[in-house]
Specification:
Length: about 200
């Protein structure tokens, strides 16, 4: 039901955008370079992917509000354990953007629902480890840079970092205070966009 409502909302926004001319509509996709802070591995060695659709509308002047519906594959590779963690989220980034010519800078939040998780150690799936990942990543920060190369095509770079732990049991890393400890998704993304 939630997916249907989200899709309908996006279609309504697209219809309004076409009618008013102050909205834009884009498809985005690319690669994620991921890690999980708190998993005993510190490098961006997990390759994932992202894709989605977004629309933005003018707030006046150079400012716009961007809303996106997409999927993002996150996780990490813990080499000393021969473990790969793959987390697939359906997420809704909402960002305040500043636009100037072909450049758009944005920052906001990208909450996501965990759609699929796989923890694999030495070729063996670990269901007990998979069950410890939280079903919702409530408060990930995201920042985005989009550079329009032509009227329609652009390149995107995005940084995402969870503010709250995505794992039930881990106490490795922390954000802001020792009380907020656990495991946190962190990733750098690079991709392309096509704006209609």
């Amino acid at each position: 039901m939630k997916r249907i409502l989200a899709t309908l909302t996006l279609l309504v926004c697209f219809g309004i955008a076409q009618a008013q001319g102050t909205f834009d509509f884009s498809l985005v996709g690319g690669a994620n370079f991921c890690q999980i802070d708190g998993d005993n591995s510190g490098s961006y060695n997990k390759l994932g992917y992202f894709g989605g659709v977004n629309t933005s509308f003018s707030l006046g002047g150079h400012f716009r509000m961007l809303v996106e519906l997409g999927v993002s594959n996150k996780g990490s590779v813990v080499e000393n354990l021969n473990r790969e963690i793959s987390l697939l989220y359906v997420q809704v980034p909402v960002m305040l953007c500043w636009s100037m010519g072909r450049l758009r800078l944005g920052a906001g939040l990208a909450p996501g629902v965990l759609a699929q998780v796989r923890v694999d150690e030495g070729g063996v799936e670990l269901p007990e480890a998979e069950a410890l990942y939280k079903k919702v990543d409530r408060l990930p920060f995201c920042a985005n840079i989009n550079l329009r190369l032509t009227k329609h095509w652009g390149i995107d770079a995005r940084y995402t970092n969870s503010f709250l732990s995505v794992h039930e049991g881990k106490k490795g890393a922390y954000r802001f205070s020792r009380d907020n400890s656990g495991a946190f998704n962190r990733l750098i993304s690079a991709g392309v966009s096509y704006t209609f």
